[in-house]
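Budget justification aside, the reviewers requested a transparent look at the raw inputs and outputs of the sequence design task funded under Objective 1. We therefore reproduce one unedited record. The lines immediately below are the structure tokens for a 440-residue chain.
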């Protein structure tokens, strides 16, 4: 297999290796990492949670880059191209640069004829971690893929862990309530090292695990907090955490009601690491003002307005609903929605339903997805708006084309749900809409 020269061929190989797409546990991936001699010579920050992980990673990266540090970032999943999962010094890696690292993983897992089976996520994670380890970086930021305790990223002992908001998602793997899910996320903590908990109401299981482990707990609302008005905001750490303050900050370039909570966790993490990674107030200002992250309440100007958001669980859809509500009046709101079959879509549709006038449910290009017809039926079963309409489509692109055709220039179109839904809209570049009714 080491002769493979294209990233697409390696990814296809990874998909065939293991009988399960998700196989929770660290023994196999740790064994291969040890064979590879994988280690980092710089601080490592891991980020776990249900929502806000990608935004947190992007803000950490932006501020650290503004401070002059050579950064590496690993996030998942990707929207369009696999390479989006890895950024080095702010740039998405080139596919050909990944190939040699896939070959290294393949050699290590088959070493001495003792072959170790890896899932797609485990194999690709090891390849990206090796690329980052070889890149001579000053700091590495790693988003935890699923849970925490048993996620492949957790083979590394992070210098600082961040746990963002906790909500019900992936319950078949992580547990049926916030306490069980919180325990899984808490697995990224390390004794004596800082853990930033930016969820304003964290599960007790997280707090108890931090205490039993002897982690350096930084808790939102107690060890750090923010305040602000419509024009600016400020952040402060408690005296026993150094008492650092940032005042008169502009709002982060990432839009949304939840981004100040994410940004607060970011500033706590950077404050906890200040002796190893000192930053300036100006780097904080510049980084937050310039941070970008596609698909997180991304508003694309045009006629009609287009909003892209990878909200795919009740908590993130609630945040999306608040953000849409704050945008002001639109005569008609069209929604394109696609989701995995294991998602509990009823509470999501019920929460955002009052804002949506026309629904466009879509199939997605993965066997794990619910069909557009099934989503449409789920909506009809709980719909409380007799004036709303709904149809099903085979692809996100077809759904968007139908929405544009039906929309007036002053309307808005919201695309949300799975990464596949938003990725289907972005795969040919950021669309600039021009409704056919402009001349009317």
């Amino acid at each position: 297999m080491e002769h493979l020269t294209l990233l697409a061929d390696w990814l296809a190989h990874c998909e065939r290796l293991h009988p399960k797409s998700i196989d929770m546990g660290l023994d196999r991936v740790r064994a291969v990492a040890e064979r590879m001699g994988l280690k980092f010579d710089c601080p490592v920050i891991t980020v776990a949670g249900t929502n806000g992980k990608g935004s947190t990673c992007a803000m950490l990266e932006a501020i650290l880059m503004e401070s002059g540090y050579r950064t590496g970032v690993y996030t998942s999943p990707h929207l369009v191209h696999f390479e989006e999962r890895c950024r080095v010094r702010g740039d998405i890696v080139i596919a050909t640069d990944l190939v040699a690292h896939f070959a290294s993983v393949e050699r290590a897992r088959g070493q001495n004829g003792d072959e170790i089976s890896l899932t797609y996520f485990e194999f690709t994670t090891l390849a990206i971690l090796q690329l980052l380890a070889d890149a001579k970086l000053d700091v590495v930021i790693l988003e935890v893929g699923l849970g925490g305790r048993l996620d492949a990223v957790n083979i590394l002992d992070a210098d600082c862990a961040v746990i963002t908001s906790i909500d019900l998602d992936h319950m078949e793997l992580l547990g049926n309530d916030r306490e069980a899910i919180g325990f899984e996320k808490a697995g990224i903590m390390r004794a004596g090292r800082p853990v930033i908990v930016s969820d304003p109401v964290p599960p007790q299981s997280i707090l108890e695990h931090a205490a039993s482990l002897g982690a350096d707990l930084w808790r939102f609302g107690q060890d750090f907090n923010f305040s602000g008005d419509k024009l600016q905001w400020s952040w402060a750490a408690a005296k026993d955490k150094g008492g650092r303050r940032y005042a008169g900050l502009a709002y982060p370039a990432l839009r949304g009601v939840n981004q100040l909570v994410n940004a607060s966790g970011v500033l706590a993490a950077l404050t906890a690491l200040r002796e190893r990674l000192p930053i300036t107030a100006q780097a904080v200002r510049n980084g937050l003002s310039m941070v970008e992250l596609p698909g997180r309440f991304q508003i694309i100007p045009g006629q009609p307005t287009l909003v892209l958001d990878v909200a795919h669980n009740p908590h993130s859809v609630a945040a999306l609903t608040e953000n849409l509500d704050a945008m002001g009046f639109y005569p008609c709101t069209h929604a394109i929605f696609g989701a995995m079959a294991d998602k509990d879509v009823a509470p999501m549709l019920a929460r955002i339903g009052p804002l949506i006038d026309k629904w466009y449910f879509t199939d997605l290009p993965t066997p794990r997805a619910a069909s557009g017809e099934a989503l449409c039926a789920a909506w009809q079963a709980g719909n409380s708006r007799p004036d709303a309409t709904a149809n099903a489509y085979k692809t996100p692109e077809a759904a968007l084309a139908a929405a544009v055709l039906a929309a007036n220039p002053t309307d808005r179109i919201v695309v949300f749900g799975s990464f596949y839904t938003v990725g289907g809209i972005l795969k040919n570049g950021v669309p600039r809409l021009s409704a056919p009714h402009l001349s009317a």
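The chain has 15 helices and 17 strands. The longest strand covers residues 333-338. Computational costs for records of this kind are itemized in the attached budget.
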